Amino acid sequence: MSYHTDQRVYKHQLDLLNRGVPLEEIQKQTEMIKSASAESVMRELKASLIMSYIAEKEKVFITENEVEQRIASIARAYNADTMRVRKQLERQGNLSYLRSDMREAKVMNLLLKEAKIAE
User: Fold this and answer.
1) Where residue 118 falls among pLDDT bands split at 50, 70, 90?
2) Do the beta carbons of residue 62 and residue 25 sit within 8 Å?
3) Strand runs (DSSP E) across the chain, as ranges?
4) Domain 2-114 class in CATH
5) Is 1's pLDDT higher than 60?
6) Cβ-contact 63, 22 below 8 angstroms
7) Which residues form the Trigger factor C-terminal domain (predicted)?
8) Measured distance CA(12)–CA(17) in Å, rounded
9) Which of 6, 24, 82, 118 could hold 75 in an S-S bridge, CB 3.0 to 4.6 Å?
10) Within 10 Å of residue 81's Cβ, how many Cβ atoms?
11) Buried/exposed code over 13-51 (b: 16+ C-beta within 10 A; e: otherwise)
């Protein structure tokens, strides 16, 4: 459960980074997320498993070029060097979380594109 809680925290941090939220605010919000209930983590874990299943069935992949573009985007948001951001993600073991997050976003876009709304 701890691994999934850490993953949830990282996903939230990544979302905040992508939106350009100041690092001090991200640190404050990180503590709130860590104290979230196990039930919430379980819901997110189930959703993540479903998204992974759909990604496999629909052959949704993230290319290295897409990862580099995302890292560059994060670096621009913080006026930082792209290689430095990449190395920090690697050092913290968060590059796989970044890829996973990007893959889930791609799956969500696919689902929204293919959705048929019935009334």
Assistant:
1) confident
2) no
3) none
4) mainly alpha
5) no
6) no
7) 14-112
8) 9
9) 82
10) 10
11) bbebbeeeeeeeebeebeeebeeeeeeebeebbeebeeb
Find where tokens 């621009």 sit.
Answer: 76
d(CA 27, CA 61): 31
Q: Which of 3-7, 13-17, 58-62, 92-96 has the lowest mean pLDDT?
A: 3-7
Residue type, 56: E
Burial of residue 104 (CB within 10 Å: 0-12, 13-18, 19+) is: buried
pLDDT digit string, tens, across residues 63-105 = 999 999 999 999 998 899 999 999 988 988 889 889 988 999 9
Q: What is the C-alpha separation between 50 and 47, in angstroms, rounded? A: 5
Q: Which residue has the tokens 């560059």?
A: 72
